[in-house]
Amino acid sequence: MKPSITLGVLCALLSEVAALTCYQCAAGTSQTCTNTETCSAGSCASMTVNAYAGGIKAEVADLRACSPVDQCISGSMNFGIARSTISTKCCKTDLCNSQKTPELNTNTTPNGKQCFTCEGDDCTKQLSCGGNEDRCVKATATVSGQTVTTKGCASSSICAGDLSAQLSTLGIGLNCCEGNLCNSAKSVGQSVLLLLGSLVSVLLFH
């Protein structure tokens, strides 16, 4: 299982936009990033993504690429069975994104926010958000012609307008709202694992 809805987010974040030479790669934990790319505007970015399943770290991604400064976000998304954190650092000199960004603080202390989440086809379950997750979210993607939906909590930075617009061009819908349980209890969910798998594919092959 690769529990990271935010892997779809990464593809949108790390698009080519800067007049710089930046490192560009998706390195594993023991790999060295040596590939570079030339960008037309913006900044270089280093991003660390951690994915957790049942509170246990299940995946780590270390990404380097060009990125607009306004998309250098840090935050988390929590879908109950899976939670992912993104930590990004941007800079504006050639090859300045050589170092891995430290992972985001994994504070999961409940903050009083409640959102609906999906377990299988049942999206009436309630989830306690943690840390700086101050928004409810509904994420959708199309997998083999079928729309897959999952729900949960997210940091407000994940819900940035420019990021959501870029995700829509990749066939990924991300809808955020502010009130408790504002992301609807209607049971439209499918398997969250299908959705997560499709987002991994977007990152790897886009």
Keywords:
206 residues, alpha+beta, CD59, 2 domains, eight-stranded antiparallel β-sheet, two-stranded antiparallel ribbon, 12 strands
Commentary on this structure:
With 206 residues, the protein is α+β, with helices and mostly antiparallel strands. It folds into 2 domains: 6-91, no CATH class; 110-194, Ribbon (CD59). 15% of the residues lie in helices and 43% in strands. It is built from 3 helices and 12 strands; from the N terminus they run H-E-E-E-E-E-E-E-E-E-E-E-H-E-H. Helix 1 runs parallel beside helix 3. The protein is elongated, with a radius of gyration of 16 Å.
What's the quick description here?
This protein has helices at residues 6-13, 161-169, 192-205; strands spanning 21-23, 25-27, 36-38, 43-53, 56-67, 75-78, 82-91, 110-119, 122-130, 135-143, 146-154, 172-177. By secondary structure, it is α+β, with helices and mostly antiparallel strands.
List strands and helices in order, with pairings.
Layout (H helix, E strand, L loop, with lengths): L5 H8 L7 E3 L1 E3 L8 E3 L4 E11 L2 E12 L7 E4 L3 E10 L18 E10 L2 E9 L4 E9 L2 E9 L6 H9 L2 E6 L14 H14 L1
Antiparallel strand pairs: 1-3, 2-5, 4-5, 4-7, 6-7, 6-11, 8-9, 10-11, 10-12
Helix pairs in contact: 1-3
Question: Rg, please?
Answer: 16 Å
Helix segment count?
A: 3
The rough form would be described as elongated
Mean pLDDT: 77
- Give the low-confidence spans: 1-7, 189-206
Helix content: 10-25%
**Fraction of residues in β-strands:** 35-45%
Number of beta-strand segments = 12
Order of helices and strands: HEEEEEEEEEEEHEH
What is the domain total for the residues? 2
Quick one: biggest sheet? 8 strands, antiparallel
Report the span from N to C terminus.
20 Å
**Largest sheet, spatial ordering of strands:** 2-5-4-7-6-11-10-12
Q: Structural class, judged by helices and strands?
A: alpha+beta
